[in-house]
Design brief:
The protein has 491 residues and is an alpha/beta fold. It has two domains: 345 residues, TIM Barrel; 89 residues, Jelly Rolls (Sandwich). 27% of the residues lie in helices and 25% in strands. It has ten helices and 23 strands. An eight-stranded parallel beta sheet has the order 4-13-12-11-10-9-8-5, with helices on one face. It is elongated and about 80 Å long.
Amino acid sequence: MLSLQKLLRFSGKHRQDLCRSGIRLYFHFALSALVLAGMSRAATSAEPLALHPKNPHYFLFRGQPAILVTSGEHYGAVLNLDFDYPKYLASLAGDGLNLTRTFTGAYVEPVGAFKIERNTLAPGKGRLICPWARSNTPGYINGGARFDLTRWDDAYFRRLKDFVAKADEHGIVVELNLFTPMYEQPQWDYSPMKSSNNVNGIGKVGKHEVYTTDKEPALLEVQETMVRKFVTELNGFDNLYYEICNEPYFGGVTRSWHDRITDVIVGTEKTLPKKHLISWNIANDYAKVKEAHPAISIINFHYARPAAVTDNYSLNKALGLNETGFKGTGDDYYRRQAWGFLIAGGGLYNNLDYSFCVGHEDGTFSVKEPTPGGGSPKLRRQLRFLAEFLRKFDFIRMKPAKDLASGVPKAVARQVLAEDGKQYAIYLGSTKEVHLQVQLPKGTYEGEWLDAVSGQSVKLPRLHHAGDKLMIKPPEFAEDCALRLWLKSKE
């Protein structure tokens, strides 16, 4: 940069030109600063993701009712330095999806874990970044120095905040999952919290004693301090909620520990401007929730069936299915699962999408066996059809109403979401041998069928109904389909 003395030594013309350039540069930076400050103020002033006050099974996001639907990468977008997360987030947004799930780096997997090909949770040697800074002492099991659990890695928090900020630009909500159980010894062997991977002598417990309140006080203190750091650093974002622990029903995670970490979030946010939602991952497949911590607002399941929604609907909380898999690498099962769960009254769906990986952050990697799940551009397109179908409804006024539909064989999945007498969303797992009847009040109705695979729509003729059951013939779609039906006028 030129000093004032050097500037004055220029000839008059050169000084004049340089001054003009300087003025232009000054106004450019000043304008940029004002724009960034405005964006920052807007982000700071926006209320964070919340349960909708009129129907807490759904969300309120930036002043609008929201259902979260996505097919996201395997949670390593931040902790894996080789993963191009701006490209990934742009791809999700381009697919019309609005949620991603990411892990913090306290848990990490070795290459080959769970037979996942190109696993984003398994960084290459020396490519893990996590909340804690590296020390000068070599010896981390997967390359590089050991970690110092008393110092933060500023580069990590810059990366994390940039990830959430870029998600924010795309209207994508981030589920930040704070901890994960150490399923088997290799996961514990790779964790920075294990004593062999840090210079603090912390983490001398067994793999199934990591998440307790009474085994190692120093390790618990590290975990609580980490949570406070995250909650403080990320408080300004509105596109965020916290999940305490992924699958805490495995690996010795105690309920007392889970409640304590929940209390840490709540206690930390008491003195901060924003209060974020907290999620409890309750079970694989199904569970009847009992005695949830009062600060929990989202109940998430993995690999779940619609009964997980039906039997917990009275909790008046958002019910989510935030991990899928173990049903092959094809698309059909996961598409059907999404439709069934959300039309049953769920508010969140995340397919675990292995087509996102390093080098294929646009989700174009071809997933094949033995990877224990699926993901593809085609599936994300089908999930977009589902998301757009739901957004056409005033879904805040709707609730599960499966019994309104009949004439469907037992083997064919059916779900109904309705504001009775006004609007109906009906999902059918097949059209074969279906003689659909819908219980409707008297009136004139309009509607359209949607092919859940192709997105093709077929409009119904206007229906004049005298009341009671109305027979509606489905079109001959090869796969599953959905009906959107609404009252045009009362008669």
